[in-house]
């Protein structure tokens, strides 16, 4: 796929990168429109199915606008400098996310989930630290792009509970994942061409506008 390989993106001029981001935003707008139509036809109230609906306003603002942008960007895009240390951190965070959400489907630990997440990360990092070498990074670096885009989108299915993933809501969930994946692609291009601080800042702004 064009512009889904590391060399395709990193070889772009910055002006071309900005144009690619603008095209992605246009596609995001179209799918968001579809998302709204599907919400109207199938759901009628998307607020009923989001992860943060049971939290207070300040909890949503703190976790959604600060915790999520930093932790998710380090998980899904920190390794896009293709260095061993960064890759170890990102993969440890990704596996911690997978573990915490898998356990979360069956058990609820409330706010202790965040302490549990830190514990998972530290334990996994100790293992990953011994296993990942530069040869691994060089071999799989193009896969990192797909993880940064589609893994990021698919991971947001965890914003729904199991009983909310009913057959009648599948069109809504697909549109939801696509919109998040496009945001993931925009942030991936920004990360590769402009640096980590810019995609963290964009993620912060997007989430802040969502929860404010």
From TrEMBL:
BP term (GO), one: proteolysis
GO molecular function: endopeptidase activity; metallopeptidase activity
Residue ranges annotated for the CAAX prenyl protease 2/Lysostaphin resistance protein A-like domain, each copy included: 139-209
Keyword Transmembrane helix annotated: yes
Pfam families noted in UniProt: Rce1-like
This protein's UniProt keywords: Hydrolase, Membrane, Metalloprotease, Protease, Transmembrane, Transmembrane helix
Transmembrane stretches, start-end: 20-41, 91-108, 114-131, 143-158, 170-190
Keyword Nucleus belongs to the record: no
The protein, known as: CPBP family intramembrane metalloprotease
